[in-house]
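Support request, please re-run this one:
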Amino acid sequence: AQSVSLELDGSLKRMRRDDATGVWSVTGPASWRGKPYRYVVKVWAPSVREVVTNKVTDPYSVALTAN
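Re-run finished. Output below.
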């Protein structure tokens, strides 16, 4: 990914990548706990030969919401 953001409460929180591990992370207040969220990921898509932005769910989540 070129960039990853956390979409929460209608706004984007920019995430940071740890170059040693490749893990993206963001730290926030306790009020974020239990709120619906998704990731906004900017990646190179070879199928269309351009950078695209995808809104995706957390692959480690334990529940999903509609839309």
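The two ends are 23 Å apart (CA to CA). The chain has a mean pLDDT of 95.
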